[in-house]
């Protein structure tokens, strides 16, 4: 297993869906590792909650530049606002964590989805914004010597396994997963990771995995952690609101 990297200098880290849940936790857990002129861009609809996350982040890493983007990523304007907020300075590391997502209506079976608008709305956030934001960020920071670029897709077991009445969610996650495969094939320099924080975590990576950072889920509450080694990553179990989230986390340096 590769040596773990614990500090990212001059890093630009973008986290979507950072106002609560896993996205908030990622922000809190990553912040201490972001040093030396690093920036953290947090995107979600609720500006109030983002402000709370910023305060918590700065408490642990006061020198970090934290930019908030209260925006609805299901709209073109929202994606545009996130891209417009990207700092102009050139980072040495780019880390995009595509975490924002929604479940969709899980009371319906496939035969119940007769409204094109409902399906389109779901895909706007869960697929379209994922693709457009990834594309926009990668275009803003094209490949160059000395720059390490990583795109993370927060995925799910549903990307690879069908669950009755979860068709929208399964379809969205499957589409994101495939986009990651294509992206990795297209951009040889890029590190692409799909990470599933579900009950049966799986990891798909565009190219060779090296564990560099481990994150623990649930630091905002007093959770019990049960860490164990798992494959290429570190797996931990914690309970959040009564739900168990085994964790596998890898950032490919
Ligand atoms: N929870 C699980 O058991 C589980 C399991 C496997 C995978 N995942 C995946 O992990 C990711 C996070 O899940 P979670 O449980 O932490 O979700 P969550 O608690 O519902 O949080 C979702 C985040 O996305 C943001 N968001 C939702 N709609 C948005 C929109 N239209 N525009 C911008 N931001 C939006 C929310 O903030 P605002 O409401 O402020 O916009 C929030 O910060 C998702 O991709 C999910 O599919 C979760």
TrEMBL record:
Keywords: Cytoplasm, NADP, Oxidoreductase. Its main location: cytoplasm. It comes from the Eukaryota. It is found in: Cytoplasm. One of its GO terms (molecular function) is sepiapterin reductase (NADP+) activity. InterPro entries: Biopterin_syn/organic_redct (IPR051721), NAD(P)-bd_dom_sf (IPR036291), SDR_fam (IPR002347). GO terms for biological process: tetrahydrobiopterin biosynthetic process. GO terms for cellular component: cytoplasm. This is Sepiapterin reductase. It comes from Callorhinchus milii (Ghost shark).
